[in-house]
Design goal:
alpha/beta, 236 residues, globular, binds cytidine-5'-diphosphate
């Protein structure tokens, strides 16, 4: 009975947007404020990419990695990937090892597209997401959350920012660990990922038609957070 109530009462807030738009940080802050669970769908794609890398290696470059992945046609069921939440924080396990700290490297990011383009992997990720949404109220960020995975969500946001601003934010994040990186390189990588994300056959990044669109190029994190919280307060 209790779980039935939780299912009936659970809320879904989706936040979609391109790389570096700040949607993940924002989703986390909103979830903290509302005492919901923050679900980072991109991290699950990253988790599967990590699992495939463990199995076939990085290969010399991402194209060769893509070819090997296609040739070997490894199904997602081959991996025991688990998503857990503790104190509202998402952790990803592969064979009971916490792999969350290893998911944001540039080499891994470059290889995600082959996994994210694959319909079986999209199906596997979406299944995990649906299971989580049955048990918790969630704020979930990604590319296709409001369009394909949770079209029924009560609130949908689309967060964007200019490519210059997104590259600058990513640069400031990466630079301390990699002082050789240039802003131009990051801008190129983001532009490439935008193109891949917007043109993929399934799960492409699109603006959900019933979403609230916020351009954060000239807004601080706190301003965006306050704006969204006031919209939610108004509509709740
Ligand atoms: O943090 P950032 O925006 O750079 O990326 P992310 O949210 O961790 O997602 C990494 C990649 O996973 C994206 O570039 C997409 O290719 C893919 N992804 C996806 O296809 N669908 C989602 N719902 C979330 C991520």
């Amino acid at each position: 009975m209790e779980s039935q109530n939780r299912i009936m009462n659970s809320m879904i807030i989706t936040i979609d947007g391109p790389a570096g738009s700040g949607k993940s940080t924002l989703a986390k802050s909103i979830a903290d404020y509302l005492h919901y669970i923050h679900v980072d769908s991109g991290a699950i794609y990253r988790g599967y990419t990590y699992a495939v890398i463990q199995k076939i290696g990085y290969k010399e470059n991402h194209q060769l990695f893509g070819e090997a992945f296609k040739f070997l046609s490894i199904p997602p069921e081959e991996f025991s990937l688990r998503v857990e939440f503790s104190k509202q924080k998402q952790t990803i396990f592969l064979d009971d090892q916490n792999i969350t700290p290893f998911l944001r490297s540039r080499e891994l990011t470059e290889r995600i597209r082959y996994i994210a383009d694959h319909f079986l992997y999209r199906k596997a990720v979406n299944k995990i997401l649906k299971e989580i949404s049955k048990l918790h109220s969630i704020v979930i960020d990604g590319r296709d959350m409001g369009t394909e995975v949770f079209p029924e969500a009560q609130f949908k946001f689309y967060i964007d920012a200019s490519i210059e601003e997104r590259a600058k934010r990513r640069f400031l994040e990466i630079y301390p660990q990699n002082p050789k990186i240039t802003l131009e390189e990051i801008k190129k990588e983001i532009a490439k990922r935008d193109e891949e994300d917007k043109t993929r056959k399934i799960g492409a990044l699109k603006i959900p038609k019933d979403s609230i669109i916020i351009d954060t190029s000239f807004l601080s994190r706190n301003m965006v957070l306050n704006l969204i919280l006031s919209i939610l307060n108004f509509k709740f």
